[in-house]
Amino acid sequence: MLLRLGLGLWLVSAGPGIHADEGMWLFNDPPKKLLKQRYGFDVTDAWMEHVQKSSVRFNSGGSGEVVSEDGLIMSNHHVGADALQKLSDKDHDYLKNGFHARTLAEEKQAKDLELNILMSIEDVTARVNAAVKPGLSDEAAFKARRAVIAGIEKESQDKTGLRSDVVTLYQGGLYHLYRFKRYTDVRLVFAPEQQIAFYGGDPDNFEYPRFDLDISFFRAYENGKPAKFQHYLKWGRGTAENDLVFVSGHPGRTSRLLTMDELVYVRDYRLPKTLGRLHRLEVLLTAYSGRSQENARRAKDELFGVQNSRKANQGRIEGLLDPAVMATKAANEKKLRDAVAASAEFEQARDAWDRIAAAQKVIADNARVFNLIEAGTAFNSDLFGIARTLLRAAEERPKPNGERLREFSDSGRESLELQLFSDKPIYNDLEELQLADSLTYLAEELGVTNSLAQQILAGKSPRDRAAQLINGTKVHDVAFRKRLYEGGAAAVTAARDPMIELARVVDGEARALRKIMETQGEAKQQAHAKIAKPRFALEGTRNYPDATFTLRLAYGTVKGYKEGGKSIPAHTTFAGLYERAAEQQYRPPFDLPKIWLDRKRRLDLKTPFNFVSTADIIGGNSGSPVIDRGGELVGIIFDGNIQSLVLDFIYTDEVARAVSVDTRGILEALRKVYDAKNVVTELNIGKRAQ
Amino acid sequence: MLLRLGLGLWLVSAGPGIHADEGMWLFNDPPKKLLKQRYGFDVTDAWMEHVQKSSVRFNSGGSGEVVSEDGLIMSNHHVGADALQKLSDKDHDYLKNGFHARTLAEEKQAKDLELNILMSIEDVTARVNAAVKPGLSDEAAFKARRAVIAGIEKESQDKTGLRSDVVTLYQGGLYHLYRFKRYTDVRLVFAPEQQIAFYGGDPDNFEYPRFDLDISFFRAYENGKPAKFQHYLKWGRGTAENDLVFVSGHPGRTSRLLTMDELVYVRDYRLPKTLGRLHRLEVLLTAYSGRSQENARRAKDELFGVQNSRKANQGRIEGLLDPAVMATKAANEKKLRDAVAASAEFEQARDAWDRIAAAQKVIADNARVFNLIEAGTAFNSDLFGIARTLLRAAEERPKPNGERLREFSDSGRESLELQLFSDKPIYNDLEELQLADSLTYLAEELGVTNSLAQQILAGKSPRDRAAQLINGTKVHDVAFRKRLYEGGAAAVTAARDPMIELARVVDGEARALRKIMETQGEAKQQAHAKIAKPRFALEGTRNYPDATFTLRLAYGTVKGYKEGGKSIPAHTTFAGLYERAAEQQYRPPFDLPKIWLDRKRRLDLKTPFNFVSTADIIGGNSGSPVIDRGGELVGIIFDGNIQSLVLDFIYTDEVARAVSVDTRGILEALRKVYDAKNVVTELNIGKRAQ
To answer: Is A203 on the interface with B (CB under 8 A)?
Structure first.
């Protein structure tokens, strides 16, 4: 699943410049010429606005689309899973068993789910760069940049009432101000069983052919009523092989513009470390889940996320360990560097690669401890996260807006509080297990005799220390959190909460490391900005920035591919689903929900279920609408095939494919399997039936 | 399960010297006085000989016992699992479904399974030490020691025809010559379904109460007929709470005599590295198994082994990260060092700890590459192992016996050839997956640009290189192996087999690293020998050596314990099994084989099924007989509880327990569930019915 995608195996792209259906394009700079040339398609401003304002970002890490004027929003099941997990308890497992509200009254309010719709984009590069005077040290430059960005965001929010984020593009080449309408009253309308949403489980994840009903429906509310939307996507009539399609969503992160030094760091340090932790967590959560059904329920969404990341990152490291991939990247970089060296015009950029290498070296030297105590791999606990937020909020909030840690800026306050005061369930047994394991990881990484490790462990074994912290803290209690948040530093100190005090023990060093990382990030950003200029000059508008979890437009064609000499058609059908189950003898995760067995006869088995296209997508695109020329919805992205994992890093359309659920399959299932008449009607007429 | 046990969590033992039911005693030095004092039991030589010659060692890593004069041998299911796996194919899954031969003709010959029975022990310490002249360098001392040991073994084998191994005890304090009768024609008689043998799977592994029928029966043959045994254990009448019991088996390894420097290395380096690899392998094999039922079958025994090791090593590291455990070990060491410092008599031992520390430092510096290319973590492939054995056999066999790598000595030749020419199934898809993963691990550990890594990968990605090697090698073919083995170096070189050539590429460095490790091992051994003297003097016969996978006698009482304020009785029953299944709603691994559901009514549900005792055991003890005062068989060891994982390291009988299957439960199941009349009769009368 795309939630957290990565790099991969197969490589065909050569040289820089735009290749085939490559590109995650900015909405204020769509590839009009390319689309006209390649597909004879005219991108109008009206078309762009309609698609933009029908596209939704989920703060739980995915995308979605508005599908009725009454605020009905579709996304993937695995994007909605976070909300489903938080709404479930011992007696109601909506994640596993699904959910269906037949009336507004039955719709269930999600916990701490925030949806954003992009309303406008403004280029603020000049203003940001003007504030960062030449000759400043990297540290001073970072501070100046932070301050001007916080100021722009605050000013915009005050003026428009919209969530305002300054977004860094081209690794620092451009700064754009994105304004979003926020929805925080979001209610669950419909979700199928996870068994069919994630049919084939981990074994079939990132594979194709595929048979997943990976969808869920939510509704955005305002003032206690369904929100009204001017723009929404009409339910389309589906696709045929070779159709042009568009994907409008929020790719999370790509690494296509990284320099070789940065890529080597990713290959040699970041990915192996990440995979080591994921393996460890997968084993921990699997063992925990094996002990009882209730354990399995509690850990379900997190375990899914870990397995999904593991498979994606496995693909990424395999890509970077392929000498052919690295050779292509190196050749591309050399070409650009040679051009820079050859022209006086680009003189300023000549030292940029070395500066990035130098900064990357400092980052590498500090990454281990930074990851442990600031990124938090030593404290794998929701309660620790809450405790630290309380501690830091007390210190940060009295500061001027522009001097705070980014997550405490005025423009982010509402989103922060939504998370901090969420009453999502927290399970002490699971918290204790994860904290004990991550404290063990800390002891292994630092050495148990390291003085910081000793301060953290306080003379106890990791297991005993975790038990003491989880049982001793009061931050479970939302009222307690509110009291401390409002009471500020004095209240936080007076509480003497053991988890908050643990956060305090590491806070000095954690902040110092964060400062180093931010300063080096600033240095890299300035160097990348210098590289961006010759790249723009040489490649012109044939370029687009790396993904940043902001709205992008991709395009491609519906198209099968060959694997191991076998042709894989673009579409699968319900018939294929039942064949797959039979071939695997219905053993989990290839078993089917009973209702799917009972109602098989009702279904038209030839109905298209999933399909693939060449659109350029990556993790974060999950739930993105797939749209036809007419702007109608024909599918919803939910995965890439294994061969697409390389897209993090370099585009290819030979065998890399985006995988979608077909709108025809969705409708057939809603009608014939789930009798979800209210949803079907709303999709068909674009509003709630009266 | 005990196959590969480790260190653990709970600690109560204080100070050196023998505590309660502590001890894995040598058969030529049993704790007669202790047993007399504590239990009023007289250990006679006849009793010892009877138990010794009824005890069996499995080369697949466990213990067993002779239970009829016609060579019927019982062990655990998880010890027999290796043989069951190798006998299975796509259409016959004996590991999963069990096996029952009702006649001799139906018994199935196991592949490369060797059983050993200890016939005699001889102290050769003086002879070994005499050959290692004072003043030799560590390297020369190692060579001298290797030569004298190989000579003693060869001489003994030639004289007696018995397998002859010189065993290092007390980390070098003593050398004993063990002579074993070997059985290599071993046939499978009976095994239950893995579902009931390993009931509760990974979640219940190392837990108690427990409900596992962890048994299998084999028969030793000689000259194509059942071998005749003078000594075998009579089927006993079971145990009651507080009964004295003995365990006679082969504990694999303990670390109780390690110095603090060695323990710190285990804690800070060996265990974290080992666990990292186990997590990685567990995820790899689980994902592979998920893809089809046949995959699951192929990987089953290996995945079990990995999960089992992971849980055991997790316990070990938790033990070593417990400051109380380390404080106890440190205090014990200090006491001994103080005694040594205080007495002129022990002057020679004074620098022993520092010498061990120095050797340990060199070992630590070389461990990473050694583990990769000599211990083979970079080449996780049976085919690689075979290829390397062929390469090295060609180089080693022409050398004088005393100068060869240990595994090629004359006395080990038959055992080596049994393995090398085994026609056990090897699955190319699994081989390729594991080799690609381990080559990736190599690239991560060394860095892909490291020159050795580049030689190994030969310009390919780990995945492509693995495919090339597995598809290119011919060592699958047993006839090819024999041809190369007989043909020597010329034939091996002429074959130009890619896997053998890979082994050759690393062989120079691998051998050099092995030499360093062996030399440092020698240095440590000499230093430990010096420590052994004051320890013997101070602690007298109240001591026993660390486990070495040689026969040991342990003793203890059948005894429940308290956990979390709850009393856990010593015995479980069949009734408890059915209750556990119901409580877990029969979901795997808590489901029951159909025959156990169908025949529930036949069973006397009050029959004791599993029980615990305080006997001092560790991994390798799996399958050990539990014997009563009369020398009758009352149970078979199959596990330790979680609290016993600490036993690797320090003894405790507060809550640490050995877990056994009760002979009464075994008989009831064989009779009522399996209708295994032939086995039941043989157990009851001590020979085959005519």
So the answer is: yes
Q: What is the mean pLDDT of residues B154-165?
A: 96
pLDDT of residue B19: 55
pLDDT at B10 over 50: no
**Neighbour order of strands in the sheet with B25-26:** B25-26, B552-557, B244-249, B625-627, B633-640, B658-662, B608-613, B571-573
Q: Which of A436-440, A646-650, B22-26 has the lowest mean pLDDT?
A: A646-650
What is the spatial distance between Cα B209 and Cα B659, in angstroms, rounded to a whole number? 9
Counting every residue written for chain B, the total comes to 690
DSSP code, position A325: H
Q: CB A283 to CB B318 under 8 A?
A: no
Q: Model pTM?
A: 0.94
What is the token pair recorded at B583?
């409580």
Give this complex's ipTM.
0.93
A591 touches chain B (CB under 8 A): no
| B169 three-state secondary structure | strand
Going by C-alpha positions, the residue among B64, B55, B84 that lies closest to residue B2 is B64
Percent helix, strand and coil across chain B, each to the nearest 5: 50, 15, 30
CA angle B676, B678, B680 (to 5 degrees): 70
Say if residue A4's pLDDT is above 50: no
Q: CB-CB: which of A9, A283, A444 is closest to B282?
A: A283
**pLDDT tens for each residue of B43-86:** 999 999 999 999 999 998 999 999 999 999 999 999 999 999 99
Cβ neighbours of residue B412 closer than 8 Å, sequence gap 6 or more: B406
pLDDT of residue A456: 98
DSSP string covering A62-78, please? EEEEE-STT-EEEE-HH
Instruction: For residues B449 and B443, give the distance between their C-alpha atoms in angstroms, rounded to a whole number.
Output: 8
Beta bridge partners of B290: none
CB atoms within 10 A of CB A505: 15
What is the DSSP code string of A632-653?
-EEEEEEEE-GGGGGGGTS---
Sorted by sequence, the CB contacts under 8 Å of residue B223 that are 6+ apart come out as none
Among positive and negative, which fits the CA dihedral A50, A56, A57, A61? negative
- CB atoms closer than 10 angstroms to residue A403: 13
- In this prediction, residue B9 carries a pLDDT of 26
The predicted-structure confidence for B403-439, as pLDDT tens digits, reads as follows: 999 999 999 999 999 999 999 999 999 999 999 999 9
To test the contact with chain A by mutation, choose from B437, B444, B450 the residue with the greatest count of A C-beta atoms within 10 A, namely B444
- Cα dist from A231 to A227, A228, A498, A513, A624, whole Å: 12, 9, 49, 45, 16
Using CA coordinates, name the residue in chain B closest to A266.
B444
pLDDT digits (tens, 9 = 90+) for B579-602: 999 999 999 999 999 999 999 999
As a whole number of angstroms, the distance between CA A313 and CA A279 comes to 11
CB atoms closer than 10 angstroms to residue B28: 14
Check A318 against B286: CB less than 8 A apart: no
- Alpha carbons A170 and A257: distance in angstroms, whole number: 8
Select from B166, B174, B126 the least CA-distant residue to B147: B166
B463 contact partners, CB below 8 Å, separation of at least 6:
A9, A318, A322, B436, B440
B-chain CB neighbours of A200 within 8 Å are: none
pLDDT band at A582 (very low <50, low <70, confident <90, very high): very high
Q: Which pLDDT score is estimated for A167?
A: 96
- Between the alpha carbon of residue B329 and those of residues A462, B11, B28, B334, B338, the distances in Å are 19, 11, 28, 9, 14
Distance from CA of A442 to the nearest CA of B (A): 11
Q: What does the pLDDT read at residue B14?
A: 32
pLDDT-above-90 percentage for chain B: 90
Q: Smallest Cα–Cα separation from A377: which of A364, A368, A387? A: A368
CA torsion, points B452, B454, B458, B461, in degrees to nearest 10?
A: 130
Mean per-residue pLDDT, B357-386: 97
